[in-house]
Amino acid sequence: MIGFHRRLLRRVRAGSTDLYWRCIGKWFGNPPVPRAAASFLFICQGNVCRSPFAEGYLRKVAERRRLVEVRSRSAGIDVRVSNPSPDLAVRVAKTLEVDLTRHRSKPVTAGMVEDSDVVFAMEHRQAVRLRKAFPRHGAKIFLLPLFDAGSSRSGERFLRYNIPDPYGKAEKEFLECFRKVESAIDGFLSQTELGKAP
Q: pTM here?
């Protein structure tokens, strides 16, 4: 009987969470994708896992295409002390050919946002916060997971609007996170020309 109640509670919670994100989706989307972009800024909470991986992945894509004019940077919304990426993040990123060994976290600044053609947030709440903090730049602030085709096919609507933070979790969560970042960036790049300023 206890097991039944726990399963029922999990279903109720999942249903209410799905309803919440279904409602959020009606009011939240991305601005129009620019025809071209050359400078990118990736934002997450602490700038040690998701955004530095995204920065490195886009840099790798640009290098393979020999696009020397492309700039890729990252920062965090909540960075008080500069920290390296966790060892597990470094190891998992290395398997995906992204080097995080020299990364150190930094806080997002108005200058970074100003100097970027495109600014990506990893989570819905981060995009909302950035748009409030930098209202003049709302047209360049995007929610990265909305470009991941796999998230739209997922039954869990939370993943449509959020790339979960793997910090403190296992290797599996890091790999899932980084793969989702890759997929979302690829989805964005399929809609714009990389390497030319808008």
A: 0.88
